[in-house]
């Protein structure tokens, strides 16, 4: 592809309700979109890093700066390229995987639109719809959590994920399980809030028939995850620890998990995500698609990725209405407990640029 210009758009999109985890509380998404215009088509990508470096080391100001100062100039200096070349072109930039993932997504979208191929077909997806779940943040009270959980079940979600932290774990999970019954799939996410000393406490969660407990310990502490995996019956899932294909291979070899959460922005892009999917499939380890409060752009990438065959557990993808009063693309609407996989070329969604402008988006235009 020959790239004519690249545009970065940045704006805030309010959430329908505050989303609290052990890292803190979000009231809006600080969005960076990458728009690539080639000689044949345009493409869009979304940078899903947080406004603060609390989930991992990336944050939106830094991601924007890396795109402007290094990634965009490197791509322009290279000249025409395929999306598959991108990772090699920017390999001298260490880390910054959320920024890279957004750029790669935009390149893939443009390339596939020009080729008339959907993203799910390109990645090797096998589903026309993907089962999805909903992620529920830490609420002011347990009663609030129960009410919110029951509301999402009424909306059609067949899988709930509860955020937990020390002091808000066993009893809230007990109450939600009693309220929604055994037919609803239930899992918990600790966002690395615990230590090895908490293993016996977390083992109390075994009685609630959970799908998994996600990332109880620090991302680099694979040995403690492996210790816990031997001592509890609930499957241990890794999220923040899964930053690359190599990190995934190490986690599997150490038996630190029996389920893997794949996030496009955390591992550096859709192509890296597919590689991790393939590795886990070869090891008989199921994967599911994690979410980062994406707009409809990043959600489209997640849905396509989740259509691959080893994504056997519902992902944190959810309908647009879970997070936003109005999305920046066509709204993603729950169909039963699933989302339909787009079949049109590229990501299969269109950005409402007038709405984005109404949000006060800043725009930076870059040419070769």
- Per CATH, the architecture of the largest domain is Alpha-Beta Barrel
Average residue pLDDT: 96
Number of domains: 2
For this structure, what is the CATH class of the largest domain? Alpha Beta
Spatial ordering of strands, largest sheet: 5-6-7-8-9-10-11
Total beta strands = 13
How large a portion of the residues is in β-strands, by DSSP E? Answer: 15-25%
Computed Rg: 20 Å
The helix-and-strand class reads: alpha/beta
N- to C-terminal separation?
Answer: 13 Å
**Low confidence ranges:** none
Task: Name the shape in a single word.
Answer: globular
Structure annotation, total helices: 13
Q: Look at the structure and name the CATH superfamily of the largest domain.
A: Enolase-like C-terminal domain
CATH fold-level assignment of the largest domain? TIM Barrel
Helix coverage percent: 25-40%
Secondary-structure blueprint:
Blueprint: E1 3-21, E2 24-38, E3 42-47, H1 60-78, H2 86-89, H3 97-115, H4 119-123, E4 129-131, E5 134-136, H5 142-155, E6 159-163, H6 170-180, E7 185-189, H7 199-202, E8 213-214, H8 222-231, E9 236-238, H9 245-253, E10 259-262, H10 264-267, H11 270-282, E11 287-289, H12 296-306, E12 338-340, H13 353-358, E13 362-366
Parallel strand pairs: 5-6, 6-7, 7-8, 8-9, 9-10, 10-11
Antiparallel strand pairs: 1-2, 1-13, 2-3, 4-12
Helix pairs in contact: 1-3, 5-6, 9-11
Description:
There is one protein chain. By secondary structure, this protein is an alpha/beta fold. The chain folds into 2 domains: 3-116 and 349-366, Enolase-like, domain 1 (2-Layer Sandwich), CATH 3.30.390.10; 121-340, Enolase-like C-terminal domain (TIM Barrel, Alpha-Beta Barrel). The chain has helices at residues 60-78, 86-89, 97-115, 119-123, 142-155, 170-180, 199-202, 222-231, 245-253, 264-267, 270-282, 296-306, 353-358; strands spanning 3-21, 24-38, 42-47, 129-131, 134-136, 159-163, 185-189, 213-214, 236-238, 259-262, 287-289, 338-340, 362-366. A hairpin with a 3-residue loop joins strand 2 (24-38) and strand 3 (42-47). Helix 9 packs parallel to helix 11.
């Amino acid at each position: 592809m020959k790239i004519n210009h690249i545009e970065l758009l940045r704006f805030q999109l309010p959430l329908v309700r505050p989303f609290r985890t052990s890292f803190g509380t979000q009231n809006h998404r600080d969005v960076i979109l990458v728009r690539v215009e080639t000689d044949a088509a345009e493409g869009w990508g979304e940078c899903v890093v947080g406004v603060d470096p609390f989930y991992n080391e990336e944050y939106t100001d830094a991601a924007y700066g890396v795109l402007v100062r290094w990634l965009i100039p490197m791509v322009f200096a290279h000249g025409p390229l395929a999306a598959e070349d991108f990772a090699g072109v920017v390999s001298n930039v260490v880390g910054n995987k959320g920024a890279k993932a957004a750029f790669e997504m935009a390149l893939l979208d443009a390339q596939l639109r020009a080729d008339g191929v959907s993203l799910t077909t390109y990645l090797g997806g096998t589903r026309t719809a993907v089962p999805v779940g909903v992620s529920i943040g830490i609420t002011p009270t347990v009663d609030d959590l129960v009410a919110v959980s029951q509301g999402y079940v009424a909306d059609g979600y067949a899988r709930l994920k509860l955020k937990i932290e020390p002091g808000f774990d066993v009893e809230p999970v007990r109450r939600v399980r009693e309220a929604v019954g055994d037919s609803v799939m239930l899992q918990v996410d600790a966002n690395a809030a615990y230590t090895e000393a908490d293993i016996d406490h977390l083992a109390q969660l075994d009685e609630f028939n959970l799908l998994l407990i996600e990332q109880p310990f620090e991302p680099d502490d694979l040995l403690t995850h492996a210790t816990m995996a031997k001592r509890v019956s609930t499957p241990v899932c890794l999220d923040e620890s899964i930053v690359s294909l190599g990190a995934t291979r190490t986690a599997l070899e150490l038996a630190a998990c029996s389920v893997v959460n794949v996030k496009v922005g955390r591992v550096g892009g859709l192509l890296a995500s597919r590689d991790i999917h393939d590795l886990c499939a070869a090891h008989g380890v199921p994967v599911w698609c994690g979410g980062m409060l994406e707009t409809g752009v990043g959600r489209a990438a997640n849905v396509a990725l989740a259509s691959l065959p080893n994504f056997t557990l519902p992902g944190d993808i959810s309908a647009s209405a879970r997070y936003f009063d109005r999305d920046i693309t066509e709204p993603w609407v729950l169909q039963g407990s699933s989302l339909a996989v787009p079949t049109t070329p590229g990501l299969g969604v269109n950005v409402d640029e007038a709405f984005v402008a109404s949000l006060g988006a800043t725009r930076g235009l870059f040419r070769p």
